[in-house]
Amino acid sequence: MIARAYSVAFQGVEARLVEVQCAVSPGLPAFSIVGLPDKAVSEAKDRIRSALSAMAIALPSKRITINLSPADLPKEGSHFDLPIALALLAALSIVPPDIAEATVALGELSLDGSLVTVPGALPAAMAAAQADRALLCPEGSGSEAAWVDAAQVIGAASLSDAVRHFLGQTPIAPACPGEVVADPACRDLRDVKGQERAKRALEIAAAGRHHLMMIGTPGSGKSMLAQRLPGVLPPLSPAEALETSMIHSLSGLLDEGGISRTRPFRAVHHTASVASISGGGRGAKPGEVSLAHNGVLFLDELPEFQRPVLETLRQPIETGEITVARANAHVRYPSRFMLVAAANPCKCGYLSDPGRACSRAPICGEDYMSRISGPLMDRFDLRIEVPPVRFTDLDLPTNGEASAMVAARVAEARKIQADRFRDHDGVFLNADAEGETLKQVANPDAEGRDLLLRAAERFGLSARGYHRVLRLARTIADLEGSANVTRPHVAEAISFRLNPGAVC
Asked: How far apart are CA 350 and CA 253, in angstroms?
């Protein structure tokens, strides 16, 4: 008799169903696993043998063959321990075969039979729901997988608990979804002294998911401003939270197995490699551009990044997704994020201060900023200069707007955009609008169009830059609650599009 259970193999955010077949046949004692298993899957037989021994179950002196079907699909990860053990128990008539066949399982086995939490429970629950099967997973992964209402989720602490559940001896209650509560002590925009123009740029960028570039001397507050973006952005919608959490689940980043409604904020160090940014490694895991999906990707000291790393950003910025092509994997991840970058104007950082600039000024500034290619710089909707704050301003009482006040305006502007693009597939915010859609929603009045045409000719805007100014003007109008894009909206959008001062 051939017993069957089911598990999943991950290809990007997609979880493909894998049939685990077990045959116990006469012959020399052996335990073999076939079907393109990697080293972690091949070692499962030793963990299973020890776990069954802890349950006082001895393997028969026969030939045990495990086949992972489809056989041409690579199987990676220790989460195949539990489904292999389940199929084996069904072949030994310890667990009813029909129950094992109606279950999708994933989990790593310890030598004592306890189940260890593994990444990917949320995509696995989606696959189980589509196949109309229950999901058996470690107890620590149950709260994560339970967010998929269409699948029954059984979170077991050990293999013996799972067996007793299937035999009806000690039923396990279905897992409940877990949610990570946002930290109320969020960094507030009110802590930033001065920098009113930079705060305005943050608000506009957050409202329309526009990419932002900040250039200023060291200590002027660029990183401080970027770190306060999460408090300005609206919480994730249920659909966005599920989509984002599926990516984080594959990377094992979900805290306590719960889903957070806070938008991700990924701050990347300038020593990051291409694989860490775009994705790669074993199984082509998601990179930073995908982990920042529906959130913010912050790159501090932008010119210090390697040139290939920066050029990798161009595809996801334009398309909202990235394709990770490796020798043994070719997967696609969603990567719709807001890029926020910060940079010093030159190597020493004091190009705009004649008293502190180096002897190579202003050539050093041109050389330093030339590390950022023109095509990448053209993709920033807002470019602002962040001047140093005067010492006397640091002692002034805090009287700026709190993040909650700015977040309320951002949320209202995003609501306007959600209603506007309700019937447009693939368009969610102004930053996504293009072609005829952009022409319809961001058509300025006669004075605004005349100003935009003169600015495009005067400053040599590219076609991409021209359209990005239109998107930016549409967002500025939304923040004011204006149905039409007028000359003041276009003028402000153009002012943010220009290179700040003489620093770049």
From this structure: 39
Q: Are residues 162 and 212 in the same domain?
A: no
- 423-441: buried (b, 16+ CB within 10 Å) or exposed (e) per residue? eeeebbbbbbbeeeebeeb
CA distance 302 to 344: 9
| Mean model confidence pLDDT for the chain | 90
Distance, in Å, from the CA atom of 134 to the CA atom of 354, rounded to the nearest integer, reads 69
**Model confidence pLDDT, tens digit, residues 198-242:** 999 999 999 999 999 999 988 889 999 999 999 999 999 988 988
Q: List the domain range (segments joined by +) for residue 135.
A: 2-177
Which pair of structure tokens corresponds to residue 35?
Answer: 């079907």
Specify the CATH number for the domain of residue 361.
Answer: 3.40.50.300
CA-based angle 285:101:116, to the nearest 5?
Answer: 45
Alpha-carbon distance of 1 to 350, in angstroms, equals 77
With cut-offs at 50, 70 and 90, classify the pLDDT of residue 498.
confident
Does 393 share its domain with 308?
yes
Q: C-alpha angle with apex 134: 129 to 140, nearest 5 degrees?
A: 100
- Report pLDDT for 501: 44
Residue 477 lies in a domain: no
> DSSP readout, 466-497?
HHHHHHHHHHHHHHTT-SSB-HHHHHHHHHHH
- Kindly state whether residue 183 falls inside one of the protein's structural domains: no
pLDDT of the residue at 504: 36
Domain boundary among 405, 420, 435: 420
Domain assignment present for 313: yes
> How many other C-beta atoms are found inside a 10 Å radius of the C-beta of residue 259?
24
Task: Classify residue 273: in a domain, yes or no.
Answer: yes
pTM above 0.85, yes or no: yes
- Element (DSSP H or E) covering residue 360: none
Q: Are residues 224 and 167 in the same domain?
A: no
In the listed set 420, 435, 466, which residue is the last one of a domain according to the structure? 420
Instruction: Count structural domains, the chain.
Output: 2
State the Cα–Cα distance between residues 412 and 478, nearest whole angstrom.
Answer: 8
Picking from 327, 239, 349, 249, the residue whose alpha carbon sits closest to that of residue 290 is 249
Strand partners, 65: 23, 32
295 and 382 share one domain:
yes
With bands split at pLDDT 50, 70 and 90, how would you rate the model's confidence at 500? low
For the domain that residue 83 is a member of, what is the CATH number?
Answer: 3.30.230.10
Confidence of residue 324 (pLDDT cuts 50, 70, 90): confident
Contact predicate 294/264, CB 8 Å: yes
